[in-house]
Amino acid sequence: MKVGVLAFQGAVREHIYMLKKIGVKAFPVRKKEELLDVDALILPGGESTVIGKFLKETGLGQEIIKLVKSGMPIWGTCAGMILLAKHIVNENYVHLGLMDIWVKRNAYGSQLDSFVIKKPVPGISEKPLELVFIRAPYAEKAEPCVEVILELDGKIVAARQDKMLATAFHPEVTEDVSFHKFFVEMI
Ligand code: GLN
Question: Is the predicted pLDDT of residue 22 greater than 90, yes or no?
């Protein structure tokens, strides 16, 4: 199994490191040939506007949409969650528009309002995981076809729809590989 990490910008190395730590072959993806060579894709955290611009300009966004619609597993962390969403409530655009969630960008405020909490995540880890929110989004709501994995103060911060996974926080900057294992099991 090969997992790609979209590598235009953001926490690319961190995801590759975590995947290798659990014995999965991981590669950066910037081009169509690289995308076609992997079985699943991670959209890292970073800046969704920047990553979204690259997706559009290179045409890779359209390729990703096609592959996900035909069943390729995909996981978006933070900016990646914004890229996946069908609705961005505080912007007048969408990027890939694949997941039936209504996300709010920078929902917790500025960089200074970034925070870490510890919580068990049902179905993923019984022991509390460090959840790192860096200028994070959350989802205000989701269609019933979306399985909510975790809510925080009534806001959706982890969710799954078919083979799509979205987390508002960054498991790749922690020591715990539970989320990466969960995604690999989805594949
Ligand atoms: N605030 C960023 C955005 O809107 C996301 C931040 C992150 O990925 N850590 O794209």
Answer: yes
